[in-house]
Amino acid sequence: MGSRKSRFCGAADTVGETVTVQRIGHARSSHGLQRARQAQPLSTFGSLRLTARFMAPLLFVLCGALASCQSDVDGVAKNVKTNDIKAPASDVEESFGESGAEITLLLQKGGSGLFEGPSRDIRDAAGLSVGDLGGNQAFVKVVDASSAANVATAVSAAKARNVALLISYLPPQVTASIAAMPADQRPPLVNLGVPVPAMAGNVYNLVSDEMDSAVEGLRAAAASGHKKVVAFAQTDFPQAGEFKLGDTVRASGGTFLGMTRYNLTDASASDAVQKSRPMLQGADTVLILGRTAIATTIEGAIKAGGPPNLTFVGTSAWPPQTYAEPTANGTVIAMVEPEGASLIAERYKRHYKRTLSTDAAYGYDAVAIASGIIRTKGPAGLNAENLTSKTGFRGVTGLFRLTPSGQVERRLSLFTISGGKLTLLSAAPTSF
């Protein structure tokens, strides 16, 4: 079966090249994209507007270092999708699209021998993205990298084929081995998995995590004068994360009073709160991290016996069911606004019969970055200068930019939990 090839063109109809230029004024854990679809925003991004002419979402490639831009935004829309994309079977060599520059997607198959879970979501979203935005100038080749030998061979072969970009969703140690290769011996690399070091250069971690949400939430609290912070986190929360939170608070002129860790039981949550009573007496802000409903158990225990007038900051990792807990009312959470994701959520579900996931949204944006640059600058434009444009990109995961150090900076909106749902407090800035 491996010798057969199956190619699926991302868009059947060409409506001609249209460049939309708009001016704008002015982050493994979820960053809240899927959950944020439950929100009831009070306003929407002014720069995300669809017309009847554009039936597919637009990824706006912000120019920054890109020469020839005449405005703050170089937006691209071509080959608008009008027909469904059917994903090829996972037991053949897969390509989405027929011609143009190659974008290689490195994934691992599951125990069934098929792409499963997040890998399947990313693969399908990549197909949707190149169909929307590739314009017959880019296609996605899906490569099974289930073994270390496969990875080394795949990267070498990609370099020989003059691949424009590698996109990896592999175990961190595998992606790290690719990232460690000299930059001139491989294509640029966008990582959709756990962040890896980018010391060799031209490596970019695209995924935001719970820390990004926590940091933005603390910054918002500090801006309103709440600067004495106590934090709670699950026992597996890394020490480096605690240091980063402390640095964030101090950089805002505040005081980080300490962190207490908890296990995933009500008894552990209650014990953690009791141990933290002395710190809570001197605090005005409580940050609660965790991918668990126990987060609201902790909040409830603090509210029941702690000092009044505390500001509570949650994170985008909180499960959606926590919003319905009465104790969560008033909690502030920073996350990606749902506007961008809604542009492709319905079509993704129609094509693939399941709900758009955060992993899928990242996969869509990774391909969209490459497609946009290829269409405006050609395959050679996928270089460090253009990938790290200071004005960044606007995609379905919001406004973000990649940095030379390999990290991602993302603009988040601020929500509060009220009546069992998220309510928008302030929209993300429209530029960096």
TrEMBL record:
<dbReference type="InterPro" id="IPR028082">
    <property type="entry name" value="Peripla_BP_I"/>
</dbReference>
<comment type="similarity">
    <text>Belongs to the leucine-binding protein family.</text>
</comment>
<protein>
    <submittedName>
        <fullName>ABC transporter substrate-binding protein</fullName>
    </submittedName>
</protein>
<keyword id="KW-0732">Signal</keyword>
<dbReference type="Pfam" id="PF13458">
    <property type="entry name" value="Peripla_BP_6"/>
</dbReference>
<dbReference type="InterPro" id="IPR028081">
    <property type="entry name" value="Leu-bd"/>
</dbReference>
<feature type="domain" description="Leucine-binding protein">
    <location>
        <begin position="114"/>
        <end position="420"/>
    </location>
</feature>
